[in-house]
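Dear support,

We are seeing what looks like truncated structure output for some complexes. This example has four components. We would appreciate it if you could run it in full and send us the complete token output so we can diff it against ours.
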Amino acid sequence: MIVEMRKGATKEEVGAVVQKAKTMDLDVQLNIGTDKTVVALLGSNTGQIDKDIFAVLPGVESVTRIMKPYKLASREFRKKSTVVDCGGVKIGGERIIVMAGPCAVESEEQLMQAVEGVKNAGASIIRGGAFKPRTSPFSFQGLQKKGLELLAKARDKYGLPVVTEVVDPYDVEMVATYADMLQIGSRNMQNFALLTNAGKSQRPVVLKRGFACTITEWLTAADYLLAEGKNQVVLCERGIRTFEDSIRFSLDISAVPVLKKSSHLPVIVDPSHAAGHYSLVPAMAKAAVAAGADGLLIEVHPNPKEALVDGLQSLSISDFTRLMEELRTIAKAVGRYI
Amino acid sequence: MIVEMRKGATKEEVGAVVQKAKTMDLDVQLNIGTDKTVVALLGSNTGQIDKDIFAVLPGVESVTRIMKPYKLASREFRKKSTVVDCGGVKIGGERIIVMAGPCAVESEEQLMQAVEGVKNAGASIIRGGAFKPRTSPFSFQGLQKKGLELLAKARDKYGLPVVTEVVDPYDVEMVATYADMLQIGSRNMQNFALLTNAGKSQRPVVLKRGFACTITEWLTAADYLLAEGKNQVVLCERGIRTFEDSIRFSLDISAVPVLKKSSHLPVIVDPSHAAGHYSLVPAMAKAAVAAGADGLLIEVHPNPKEALVDGLQSLSISDFTRLMEELRTIAKAVGRYI
Amino acid sequence: MIVEMRKGATKEEVGAVVQKAKTMDLDVQLNIGTDKTVVALLGSNTGQIDKDIFAVLPGVESVTRIMKPYKLASREFRKKSTVVDCGGVKIGGERIIVMAGPCAVESEEQLMQAVEGVKNAGASIIRGGAFKPRTSPFSFQGLQKKGLELLAKARDKYGLPVVTEVVDPYDVEMVATYADMLQIGSRNMQNFALLTNAGKSQRPVVLKRGFACTITEWLTAADYLLAEGKNQVVLCERGIRTFEDSIRFSLDISAVPVLKKSSHLPVIVDPSHAAGHYSLVPAMAKAAVAAGADGLLIEVHPNPKEALVDGLQSLSISDFTRLMEELRTIAKAVGRYI
Amino acid sequence: MIVEMRKGATKEEVGAVVQKAKTMDLDVQLNIGTDKTVVALLGSNTGQIDKDIFAVLPGVESVTRIMKPYKLASREFRKKSTVVDCGGVKIGGERIIVMAGPCAVESEEQLMQAVEGVKNAGASIIRGGAFKPRTSPFSFQGLQKKGLELLAKARDKYGLPVVTEVVDPYDVEMVATYADMLQIGSRNMQNFALLTNAGKSQRPVVLKRGFACTITEWLTAADYLLAEGKNQVVLCERGIRTFEDSIRFSLDISAVPVLKKSSHLPVIVDPSHAAGHYSLVPAMAKAAVAAGADGLLIEVHPNPKEALVDGLQSLSISDFTRLMEELRTIAKAVGRYI
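Here is the complete output from our reference environment:
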């Protein structure tokens, strides 16, 4: 941590900074320039120390953190890439894992049609929403427990593991009895009560990026899960909020290489929620695989025109089947397979 | 809702849109231009209908919503401005209400010093955090229930009502037994489980704006509270995330006049979390009052240098006292008082 | 264009809107709902009409434009994809065109080494900056005319066409005598004097996206070039400004499929300026090709450690050569070649 | 400047950083921590040194600049606040200066009505556009030289100085013969050719903030003007681009106190372009004065309904007159006058 003193700061002010640092067991090195004094604070946990502790002291101009605030999710903490096991399917290895299915579980017929379609096309994991966080209280909120039962039935019938979202900290245990992997949605990335409970469950967790959160904040949120002893966490980029209005969210494609460098956790991409329109999904899915993503999360509906939620961004089964063909050639081009 | 058909859309495609609209009891008017056909869908609840229902139909180019997705929070729903009663203090009337106190309750001594100071300076409501949502799991998380007890003690001693944040849907009832008003924080603006529970409590609620949410999404989230029958909701602007890095969040000052036009709910401003630095708080607080805010939420600490949380953005009691003097002259200049 | 009248707007107010529209030769259709009246204005050029003309009229609540403000750049105006000819190299065909070279021309030796390297690796066009728009007046501003002469020399020696930036409207003619294609940079996307002059030149133009401009604004800026009779325009996505701070600019990968749908112009991607760091360039370049880009603009320096400008984002020749190998397999996977 | 070495960086890599710094006459201090080495580079001009020079060196993890890249515009360079003289009117003193008039000069009658109105209401400077940078080439581009002549005529008739925009570097001299102060618009904030020429003119300059530029970039652009020897520069905040869509641009009200702290230049605010709607202008204008702005730039039209440009954001003369009354009370409340 670097504390820059104001021009003309007194010796006493510099001394108070040094004193404070020493009470926190930090090493201190003074850099006395012609213009101003800069104090370097060194220690193994300076990433977790609040900058304000020094910024409020008299004579301090600014405090710059050199170390990142996250720790357990960092590549420095764990050099080897983590492979997550979701019901026997490995995420983060050579194989690119495609998770597909409807945005919301609507009925047994709809779900089974979707799962049969995506399985035939080569998907490895079923996705489907039972609890739907909706921006308006007047919208369809999901089948809830009934939806979980249908997902479990689909797993048994088609032999693919299931990932589904949990929105309430008190539902974690219940959802974990039905699903092979829990998903924490974008709007809940900083719902710390939910993170803590999900961290305690035995299931792996997909942590979607908050749509207005930096990668640093995202990895710090992952630390909440990892701090509970869990190491089975998958990061999912799903688009960030920007000024551009031709799509719902701007897919931050550079998040893939940035995360591969900064973290040991596997990274998947959800092109459906970013695009908001089925016609844009294939290009974005292909870009994600080319950029190095370990998997994809894609919405597929047997009949998008009748979908209760997000029909516009859902691929039909035939569109998805065609996309999977294209993705296989891209995966091969980057030395992987689907 | 306006459905624009693609150039060259067939009669059958237009017919399917019309048919769908009729099954939803909407009035339909066709506008057949030389270039393309535009279908207007009219009805009193088109704001709550999902645009995708029409956007997925063949031949549709785009769907534009004219009506807003929120309803109960809108000025159209309720013309008269709502006045919220927080333990006898009226928010939304002629008086500008200042809520002040420490970011986090740290100890009895700290809280009592802060409350005495802000009361003497003219604050009307005590603010203080017992449950702290922190970005890192390694940071101080608040005194929790012990903090609530201290807040209740401060209320009894100084005779000012208390507002405090609730972060877990299952804590709503407990927090409501100690506090006069509940606060829902920025990171929880779209935590729908929390909104629904808070909506059911007897207490008024301050709903802070999600730092990356539009005003439309904010008012739609307010609908979650209002849908439970509550009409005692205060909106709090606290800064939005932008590219500017000289402050923590960019205070959206225009939210004040925009909300006054679009909604009947009172609007307050939190300059402390936006600024992130005490030296910027006074200018932003004065701007908020001049722009028409009904109140302010300001962090004050008896000794900012020793604060456990957000010390850098906290005013000292003497700074706060001086600011209150200035705010009184601004309030008077806009025909109000503090 | 859709004009929504306020609830309770009078007949006279509706009449004034209709009257205004008629003086502009627009077709008008009235949609009188139970709640409010909506007026649809139809005509072939409603995209170019200022919304404010109607928004200022009494009784008007809002005006929504259905047609896009751009015209000549739109896919509706020209169905067939445009192929741009840059000194014999075709941009927008089956072949993916890689333009590579140093950010700034620094010396003859540096430029020739770079060009020899990128040519050997398979680049089709030389890029190199002679006029450098720099954020600080104290930074190196480019070799200017001397740089142009060196670029022309490199073209003659290596037989590859040259693209270079022009920053001053009065330099267009001079730059056009040296370069095969002009580049308009991100900070000048809405420099209308420059656009108009560049539109008049005989050379094709690469129009980089303004880093805070929407795709709609970008295509409207392209209309400035096209309005001068030029149809040889290439669009270049180079990242947009967002809150994310792990990279310089967030590459908007979805711009590629969005532009392919909305416009007939070829689309290339500059991963170097978005990334700001060489280690991120390969993943982003591969993503761009997978997403359907017609070309790439990549910074390559024979010795990045000694570069005067943007060394950190420049690839070395060996890194670039390796990347070209990888790009070839991706290009093949999407049915194209380099 | 702080250079953080990678964990495990070799002595030779650290040595190369030190060596490089010494060739640039910088003082170096090594901070050898248990985890990693941090090199502090000290000198009076480290703000102007390109970070990449060190970031490209082997073994370097990151480079953090402590000093700001701007210099001449900084409060450190000049402690005393600058007062700008525009035709005898002082900007940056105790008096708050209101510049008002039409967005575009349309005709002699329109201009004279506007100027008479704003003068009567208490405006000190005439604003009016002769050259209009428009996003679409099919929109009205301003009366150009004819507009300048009318502005000069208005100055002679009403005795108020004139500020008007210059968009082309080659027009600077011509515009300067008619106007008392030049304005550089938001889209040209980083048009360095224009900045350099305007810096050479004898006239004071209003530099509007680029709508997607940070305050640091803005002050660095001001350095372009100041580097030419001019010290008569006024900064104008006019809203930044964010995700919020209820207004055109989000007015960054905190820019006022941030600039007052970082720079010696006067700061004015343009609420009209930020708001995009006349009904929001008064609240934003009052907020700006309360926050400490030295002046306002407000669009006023004698008949907004007939305006050729931006009618929706223009105040009528009666609205402006009423607003001036309110602004006077706010100015008084902050110890100033209009």
